[in-house]
Amino acid sequence: MIPKMELLCLSSTRWDYIWQRPQQLMSRIAREYKVLYVDHAYPIAHQEIFQLLNDLSLLRNRVKQINDNLIRFSLVEFSSDAFGGNLDTGGMNELNRWIKTIFINAVLKQFHIEQPIIWTCLPNSRAMVEKIPHRLVCYDCVDDFASFSWWPPETKIEEIGLIEAADVVFATAHSLFKRCQAFNVSTYLVPNAADYKHFSFLPATQNELVRGIPNPIIGYIGAFYEWVDTKLLLTIAQTHPEWSLVIIGPIHGINTALFAGCSNVYILGPRDYTELPKYLGSFDVCMIPFIQNELTLNTNPIKMYEYLAAGKAVVSTDLPEVRRYTGIVKIARSHKEFIAKIDEALQENNMPVAFKQKIINERKQVARENDWDMRCAQSLAIIKEYLAMRPV
After folding, report:
1. Whole-model pTM above 0.85?
2. Which pLDDT value is given to residue 85?
3. Dihedral over alpha carbons 181, 183, 184, 188 (to 10 degrees)
């Protein structure tokens, strides 16, 4: 018999940021089980940290009840300059682990959660996890974190320690699966997915949100971060001024001034998750214009499944996880080929209706087979299997 399950999710992203894998899975798990969703910690003034340490009840101001089973906790930590630089990086990291552990354990106690299943998306969380009473540790390896510019050099070593210590490891991409499996045989491939229901029903009328932007629209939805190939986008915009490039998502590490002379590039910034299907419905072609590096070669792009759920033509840089859908997604190995693939996708508008609908249905079927409900069920089944082998 498996006793009741309660989860503590140490997320790599804030609940109110881009709706990604942690939010998708935890919102579904919370349909049955209590979940404490802990935002990736952000730094605040050291005076506020000391106030919280002196009165842990103040943490309630950083807690929000999303629904009956889902609780969000906005975790905080000391900023790197909190003590005038008198602590080295190692000392500051150790102090913050101690602080965060105290805060998390206090919130767990507040909501009467004892020995939860810890589902961590943080590669450097082993030391913290070991200080939180738990029944099982699941590491969800969602990306090659060591390849992000803002993660420190020691991330790779710390991640190996977590992989080795975890009871169960999930990996989003085949390359990550092989890497994790080398350190833990209890590793499972659980790729990313789409909320098929959310993205498959598009508005029947023209979206007011993009009124005034000329067709055809070549669209991108996602983080407009350092892994986006801005040279490619610039080449597309300059080569085809009759195409409108619409970019939706938060911006970081991108010099948007590059596009100042391109009147056909529309950088709209972040939009609410509920509105994304409206924008997607207006796109003629969707794109995944990534550069090729260690990060993107190990990524399983969620946007691919979301685009396909809408039945849209997708053109992507040549990435291993995208390559698995050759024939469904148009894959380009150069800037010139990327532009040619977009042009090819636009020709769908000239196809007979029945043939075009057949292609759309094939795309939707791929998304239907890669839905977050399925990924959630798969993950829970694996966790329950391991719990069943443990004494109550």
Report:
1. yes
2. 66
3. -20
